[in-house]
Write a structure and sequence with these properties.
The strands form 2 sheets. Strands 1, 2, 3, 4, 5, 6, 7, 8, 11, 12, 13 and 14 form a 12-stranded mixed β-sheet that branches. A two-stranded antiparallel sheet has the order 9-10. It has helices spanning 2-6, 21-31, 43-53, 70-74, 81-92, 95-98, 120-129, 132-135, 139-154, 234-246, 306-311; strands spanning 36-41, 59-64, 99-107, 110-112, 115-119, 162-166, 189-193, 195-199, 205-207, 210-212, 224-229, 256-262, 264-277, 280-300. The chain folds into 2 domains: 2-104 and 296-311, Rossmann fold, CATH 3.40.50.10330; 111-294, Tumour Suppressor Smad4, CATH 2.60.200. By secondary structure, it is α+β, with helices and mostly antiparallel strands. It has 11 helices and 14 strands. The longest helix has 16 residues, at 139-154. Helix content is 31%, strand content 31%. The two termini are 23 Å apart.
Length: 312
């Protein structure tokens, strides 16, 4: 990878060894005016690098090096980092065309690239992180085990965990700014959420090579999408996720609420609930405040090399 990237470019490699390290390195690179910072690691490392360069002129590149690599695969990179490096090098041949601004989500001041999970989803990630040494080698089986174990033993399946309000439903009947009930939209509010996925991209994740498609309305050039499960019924959840594996997104129902084109979102409850950002468990909170940030970071998009296109 280093050889491919350094043929026509000056490349410096920096290794991280603790949480938050990548953000500090990326911020320093942005302050020094470095053209491009490439994250090589899992989705958590990518999140840190994106946070470090967001709002600067320094572009972001991605190389898959984790167990799932959701964001890298979403933008069309193969799961092999060597093959992915070839596509990034091809993209750098025309940076004006292939480095473009994308939007990010932000929750309580923290950027996210592809999603934030709240409630049950985050409780599953918390269980996975207690066995972090197995994550790279047994990623999907570990997640399946964690999902079953959490559902059976580690999560209240009988009482809702939070309310979700989007845009004009924030603040109750008065909405964001209007105290006379003129802008309130009750369809943008639920008070019985068990778990919510706030999407900046789609798919939500991958099961092997199959994308888990929650909403085609999510995208890097679009506002956020919030999908809220209003039940912990195993039958309802399995049916919904089975439909997501078929493509086309989940269908709104009495069990699932879908808010598209979300610019601002509030998730809150008197009792704390867990949440995770881009696959990293961040603890519990009683209130999460989301905003969509357009053109938050410049991203290097992969391009298939011209000689490979001619071969194909």
């Amino acid at each position: 990878m280093h050889r491919a990237l350094s043929r026509q470019h000056d490349v410096q490699i920096v290794e991280t060894n603790r949480r938050g390290h990548a953000t500090r390195f990326a911020q320093d690179a942005a302050h020094r005016g470095i053209d491009l910072v490439i994250s090589f690691g899992g989705d958590g490392t990518l999140n840190e690098v994106a946070t470090g360069v967001a709002g600067s002129e320094t572009a972001l590149g991605v190389l898959p090096g984790g167990s799932t690599n959701v964001f890298a695969r979403t933008i069309g990179l193969p799961n092999d980092p060597v093959a992915a490096a070839t596509l990034l090098v091809a993209g750098l041949e025309d940076p004006e065309a292939n480095i473009r601004p994308i939007g990010l989500g932000r929750v309580n001041g923290r950027f996210f690239c592809f999603h934030t999970g709240i409630g049950y989803d985050a409780a599953v990630v918390r269980t996975v992180e207690t066995r972090a040494s197995l994550k790279r080698w047994a990623g999907h089986p570990l997640f399946i085990y964690a999902a079953l174990h959490t559902w059976l033993n580690k999560y209240d399946r009988h009482h809702p965990h939070f309310s979700v309000a989007a845009d004009s439903a924030i603040g109750g009947p008065g909405g964001l700014t209007d105290n006379e009930n003129l802008n309130y939209d009750p369809s943008r509010f639920v008070d019985d959420g068990y778990f919510t996925i706030v999407l900046n991209t789609n798919p939500y994740s991958f099961l092997g090579n199959r994308p888990l498609d929650l909403s085609p309305a999510a995208g890097l050039d679009k506002p956020l999408v919030a999908v809220t499960f209003r039940t912990m019924s195993a039958i309802a959840i399995i049916r919904t996720l089975a439909g997501a594996l078929k493509g086309g997104g989940v269908t709104p129902s009495k069990h699932v609420a879908c808010f598209n084109d979300v610019h601002e979102l509030i998730v809150e409850n008197a009792e704390p609930f867990p949440y995770q950002v881009d696959g990293d468990y961040l603890g519990e909170s009683t209130r999460l405040h989301f905003r969509h940030v357009p053109e938050a970071v410049k991203l290097l998009f992969p391009v298939q090399p011209a000689d490979q296109i001619l071969k194909d």
